Amino acid sequence: MKALNIAATGMMAQEMNVNIISNNIANMRTTGYKRQRVDFQDLYNQNLRRQGASTSEAGTIVPAGVQVGSGVRVVATPRIMSQGDIEQTDKDTDVAVRGEGYVQVQMPDGRTGYTRDGSFEIDATGTIVTQDGYSVLPAITVPPNSKDLTISQTGTVQVTVGNATTPTVLGQIQLARFVNKAGLEAIGDNLFVETTSSGAALVGNPGDEGFGTMLQGHLEMANVVPVSELSSLIAAQRAYEMNSRIIRAADEMSQAIANLK
C-alpha cells in the first residue's frame, strides 16, 4: 500500500523539521547565530491517467489526469541572514555589525572564516582574537601599555599609549560580504566559510557603500524569534501525528483485507 511509504516520508521530513527548529531554539542566545528553516519538495508523481491524452478518434482529450505522488523530501535548510537584535554589553572589545558584512577570522587550517560574533578578546600577545583565539583579520595588536581602546563605526581601532595625549591608530577592522550570503557554509564556532554558492568574498571597510557599520560595546544576538519557532514546532508535531495516523489507517485497511474470507 503506497500510503505507508508516503506517510513514512512525511514523518521523516517532519523529524528533520523538528531537528532544525530545536537547533534554532537551542541557539537563541548564541551571538550572531542565523536561524535556519526547512524547505520541502514533493517526490515523483506517478501518472495513472495522463492529462492531455487522447480518449477517442474524434480528438477528445483528457482534461485532468490522475496522478499519485510519492511523498515529500527535505530539499534545503537555508539560513535566514537577517539582522539580529543589538544588545548593549559595555565591553570595549565587543563589537556588533549593523548591516551587511562579516568580520574575517584567520582559522588554524589557514582558511579565512567569517563571523557576525563580535565578542572579541585580547590574547597574551596583544592580538585581537575571537573566543577561540583566532586572530581577527587584518591582525591588530594592542600595545601592553595602552588604555582606552576604541573601535569606531568604520572599524578604526585606536588606543592611548602610555601618557600620550593623542590616540594612536592601530589598524582597521574590515568586513567581507557575499553575492549570495545564504550560500555560506556554517562550520560551527559561530563561523562560516565561503563556498561556490556564496561566491568570493568582497572585502571593504565598514561604512563603505554596501557595507554595514560597527558598534563598539554591543553584540548582535541570534535572529531567532521564539514565538515563531514554537508555533512552527507545534505545526511540525501535528503534521508528524497526522502522518502517523495515516500509517495506522493504512495498516488497519491492510488488516481488513487480510481478514476477508
Automatic annotation (TrEMBL):
Keyword tags: Bacterial flagellum, Cell projection, Cilium, Flagellum
Gene Ontology cellular component terms for the protein in this record: bacterial-type flagellum basal body, distal rod
Domain spans labelled Flagellar basal-body/hook protein C-terminal: 216-260
InterPro entries: Flag_bb_rod_N, Flagellar_basal_body_rod_CS, Flagellar_FlgE/F/G, Flg_bb/hook_C_dom, FlgE/F/G-like, FlgG_G_neg, LlgE_F_G-like_D1
Compartments (UniProt record): Bacterial flagellum basal body
GO BP annotation list: bacterial-type flagellum-dependent swarming motility
Main location: other
Subunit structure: The basal body constitutes a major portion of the flagellar organelle and consists of four rings (L,P,S, and M) mounted on a central rod. The rod consists of about 26 subunits of FlgG in the distal portion, and FlgB, FlgC and FlgF are thought to build up the proximal portion of the rod with about 6 subunits each.
Name of protein: Flagellar basal-body rod protein FlgG
Source species of the chain: Oharaeibacter diazotrophicus
